[in-house]
Amino acid sequence: MPGKDKMYRYDYLIAGSGLAGLYAAYRASKYGKVAVITKQKVTDSNTFYAQGGIAAVTDEEDTPQFHADDTIVAGRGLCDPVAVDILVNEGPLRIKELIAFGMRFDMDKGHLELGLEGGHSKRRVIHAGGDITGRKITEFMISSILSNPNITLFENHRILEILKSDNRCLGLKVWNHDNDSQEIFTGGNTILALGGASAIYDRTTNPSTATGDGIALAWEAGCEIADMEFIQFHPTTLYSKDNKSYLISEAVRGEGAHLLNARGERFMLPVHPLAELAPRDIVARTIFSEIQNQKINSRNKENFVWLSLKHLNADRVKSRFPHIYQKCSELGFDLTDQIPVAPAAHYMVGGVKSDINGLTQISNLYVCGELASTRIMGANRLASNSLSECLVFGYRAVEHSVSQARLNPHHNISNQTFSIKEFYRDEFLSGFYNYIKESIASIMTEYTGIVRTEEGLRKALEKITNLKNEISALKLTSEYYTHTAHFLTSTATLIVTAALAREESRGGHYRSDFPEENSLFKKHSLQQKNEELKHTI
User: Fold this and answer.
1) Number of domains in the chain
2) Which pLDDT score is estimated for 3?
3) Which of 308, 313, 310, 324 lies closest to 130 in space, CA to CA?
4) Which entry of 124, 135, 253, 280 is annotated as an active-site residue?
5) Which domain-ending residue is among 300, 326, 346?
6) CA–CA distance, 154 with 353 (Å, rounded to integer)
């Protein structure tokens, strides 16, 4: 037994409590004992705050091919057609299973009520509770998890390290915040569903937990990391001067809301045939440009544009978006009139490279959800494809794992199996961690936001390197706060390095010094520890 660490042994380890993790845990419970390990509370996930819904073909006037075409158009030439085909064909199956299991989605005259969002040519976005789909489906899955005798939930547990031997994942080293101690979890298969990294930006729609831990963990373990330059900025979050962003769902524009500049003009009309429903990268970048123009050419120097619903039926707005309406009212705004909005970091399009079953380059280590790069999203995620991806690839990861050789969770693990580094936590260093986090957020927002340049990206790398040096100077390789501060700098470095190497503009990556797409970069960026970045088809 390794040192004095408490050890847990399970058939499956699921890290993360968003829809991908919870659904994978539910599926895995059919094949053995499952541990669900989550950084804070089980509800602290991007899924819980997702408003829009799940994109899946359920209407007879729609087809999987239409859905695939929309996904590929949004992905700007970098979608894998095989992975997209899996998503659009298996997504409806997973939805039917959820409904049969008891999940209730919003209905209209006996049929699923379907919403329209940016980039979709058909109404195909199903939702629950009007505008709280993520919360409804998360609560549904949580109730299933808590009542399942094969699943144990570990809240307030943060992953410190992926444990492996001979390129096989053996388990996870975890910090238990409740007991302030290190613990070891071993498992026959490990599925990482730790979400994205958009909370390393100042303005973000993500919960504070979404700081890219999964990326840093997988990078350190030797996994390939793909397409990290593509960060999707949600075009419409309620603007506040303190950078606290509240998401205004894409579905609001799907119902007919207009974007207006300081002069009251619909500025999206001349930009794209779909106007306000253009793909997110185009809408976010256009809003950014309007805000910059306002600062230069208008008396209105505010850092926002207006989202106007005053031309829509007020009762319909209140019934379709009850929670958004309530939140806006609490903050002094009337959703049935017009509200100030600005873009915010929302979704990590790239991630840990996996195959079509979620398997990484390390045996018995799977990824799914936002953390994974299955190459479905290409350079820009189509709205509401993410929850569908969680279901489809959470399912595939578990089903694939059943056929693979795996470690018996009761295998005798000794100190010789892998190096056990004993972590400790010095609460005095919590301030240092917060300093690193705030510094990274400032750097990423200023230099690696919606519009990027070589000069800015090089400044970002220089500043991040300086922060790394400050961490290294402490020489505390086993201390909790410095270790997790290193996660932040590692993830930020991967994003900036990939953005610097991509000398073009495509999807969620826009370089003002290279404003056009370049066919030479119709490739994926790949980064791996101790290797040079490369671009591959």
Assistant:
1) 3
2) 46
3) 324
4) 280
5) 346
6) 26
